[in-house]
Amino acid sequence: MKAGGRLRTAILSLVRRFGLVGVLRTVRRCLRGDSYTRWVQAHRLTPVDHEQIRQQAAALPHQPLISVLVPVYNTPEAWLRACLDSVLDQLYPYWELCIADDASTQPHVRVILDAYAARDARIRVVYRTENGHIAAATNSALAAATGAFVAFLDHDDTLAPEALFQVALAINAQPQVDLLYSDEDSLDRQGHRVRPIAKPGCSPLLLRSHNYISHLLVIRRNLVNRLGGCRIGMEGAQDHDLILRAVEQLPPQHIHHISCVLYHWRIHPDSTAAGTKIKRYAAAVSRRAVAEHLQRVSVDARIESVPNRPYIHHVCYPVPAQARASVIIPTRDRLDLLQPCLDGLLTKTDFPELEVRIVDNGSKAPEVLRYLADLAMRPNVHVLRDDAPFNFSALCNLGARAATGELLCFLNNDISVAQPGWLRELAGLALQPGVGAVGPLLRYPDGRIQHMGIELKQPWAAQLIGHGRDYAQAQRTLALCTVRNVIAVTGACLVVSRAAFAQVGGFDERLPVAFNDVDLCLNLHAAGYWNLWTPFAELTHHHWATRGRDNTPAREARKASEARYLRQKWAEIIPYDPFRPERYDA
After folding, report:
1. 3-state secondary structure (DSSP) of residue 354
2. What is the C-alpha radius of gyration for the chain, rounded to an integer number of angstroms?
3. d(CA 134, CA 73)
4. pLDDT exceeds 60 at position 586
5. Fewer CB atoms near the end CB (10 Å): N or C, the chain?
6. How far, in whole angstroms, is CA 185 from its chain's centroid?
7. Beta strand pairing call for 66-72 and 149-152
């Protein structure tokens, strides 16, 4: 056989064994390297690290017993051994492994489980006499547990060696915690760690969109027992259902996110990690879990599907017919911006009760003054005049004081309407109990993303999420498909209830241009409100069109001064944005 033929045969053999995607991923990793692979190598624990962690574990004031629950059914031998070994290799020794075999028919399963149980007294195995599926098997493992906390581990997945130590460390730091979860990644067919999932802090509205918590999940055992364990009939989404029921019982401070990759989810043909087409029934069960959760917490909402995203749920909150929204628009001249903004607002926006408060900051153009005079003749449009030097915060506060709606929508004059239901989506969320500011997806006229929320980050203390990204590329990520808890949203379009806005004192007028939206949202966050971003309300933003960019020395100095003020005011929270996921790249 010629060399070319041998190479072709070898490639076909690799494709049959590992799949085309696996081969391409390996080639890419070899040719140019993979940022996460480099990160994994750079952060791999050494034997010295192992010994230090063991010493720290032995010195912990509180050493909770953690029961690891593993439901097993016909697991391939190599995967089962890897799963069990990952528990035996834990650097934190105060654990027990509770295994429930769900009447496996493969003889190797019992042989392995018996051998491991004989090897370590901390391992106990329950053999079920009939197959009851994952919820029933998990409950059988739970019945054998005696630990203060239970950790959920699938029979073909593995734990990082420091996983239970990190859990115990968090419990010592926050003794009141009842539910903990960590970041995770996947193991491909070659056993390489790929696709890290960095998660936000406690995000109850995101949890209604999809099960972002997933693995590693650890819950206080008495809470799981009070909830009745996993519900039979919820197989495929039994973990999402259990988390929703648990979160209903807990204040946010009893839920803790561990920003470490502690769980490795194995990708194989029968795993949901291989793709959503594998277990579409699980998506239907997850949707049912969310619907029943909404009923339990007395939230009137409907759930819509998201195209090509079976595991994502769009929870639509209705707006009462009598609910009034006051749209507050600061403006100065620029009829070419204001008129399209108002046309879209007044003729293309589907909302039951709408009033517009235009705050004119010293317009001089005759055509603008005539246009504003004509607008003022409309019963639902009111024009306020303020000739003071530009102060966005003061203009917004002036409009809010004059508004009559129970909802306030602060809108830039360079925004144009892209869809009729945008305000319904924002208002429905803003009217939910405990919700503060809500912001939409904003895109530039050329389609690029302008705003997907705001995160706290140096050097300016805050930055737009997704700014400048290609929309089609971003659509491949979950972030552009779900309602998300965020620390802040932009004041270019921000909806908040009048009551919440008044409670925190409105916009801080010491921030006349920049960061006033971030400051408002941080005040709402500090008062216990959840700020949200939704992709299901979309608008077009002609960014900087009215005032221009902050690219002169005077404007840069002013922006730096405002950033300094924000950093000083919120010094304790800016470095610790709870909704900014960790980055796992070299």
Report:
1. strand
2. 27
3. 9
4. no
5. N
6. 16
7. parallel
Residue-wise pLDDT for 500-529, tens only, equals 999 999 999 999 999 999 999 999 999 999
Looking from the CA of 336 toward its CB, the CA atoms found within 13 Å total 3
Q: How big is the chain, counted in residues? A: 586
Paired tokens of 243: 């988390």
Give the Cα-Cα-Cα angle 543, 546, 552 (nearest 5 degrees).
85
How far is Cα of residue 302 from the mean position of the Cα atoms in its chain? Answer: 21
Contacts of 514 (CB under 8 A, 6+ apart): 550, 558, 559, 562, 563
Joined together, the tokens standing for residue 6 give 């041998």
The 3-state DSSP class for residue 446 equals coil
List, in sequence order, every residue forming a beta bridge with 314; answer none if it has no partner.
304
Q: What is the DSSP code string of 181-246? A: EEEEEEE-TTS-EEEEE---S--HHHHHHS----SSEEEEHHHHHHTTSSPTT-TTSHHHHHHHHH
pLDDT digits (tens, 9 = 90+) for 532-572: 999 999 999 987 644 455 557 787 888 889 989 999 999 88
Helix (H) or strand (E) holding 119, with range, is helix 107-119
- What percentage of the chain exceeds 90 in pLDDT? 80
| Token digits of residue 452 | 């997907």
Would 42-296 and 324-576 be classified into the same CATH topology?
yes
**Under 8 Å between Cβ of 285 and 211:** no
Q: Mean pLDDT across the stretch 25-42?
A: 69
189-208 residue pLDDT tens? 888 999 999 999 999 999 99
Which among 380, 365, 405, 388 has a CA at the least distance from the CA of 499? 405
Q: How many other CB atoms sit within 10 Å of the CB of residue 265?
A: 20
The pLDDT of residue 573:
86
Domain boundaries in the chain? 3-33, 42-296, 324-576
At the topology level of CATH, where does 324-576 sit? Spore Coat Polysaccharide Biosynthesis Protein SpsA; Chain A (3.90.550)
Q: Output the DSSP codes for 361-420.
A: -S---HHHHHHHHHHTTSTTEEEEE--SSP-HHHHHHHHHHH---SEEEEE-TTEEES-T
Pairing mode, strands 324-331 and 407-411: parallel
**pLDDT tens sequence across 451-494:** 999 999 877 788 999 999 998 888 778 788 899 999 999 999 99
Rounded CA-CA distance 80/83 in Å is: 5
| Residue recorded with tokens 């055992």 | 221
CA distance 511 to 401: 18
Residues with Cβ within 8 Å of residue 344, at least 6 apart in sequence: 416, 417
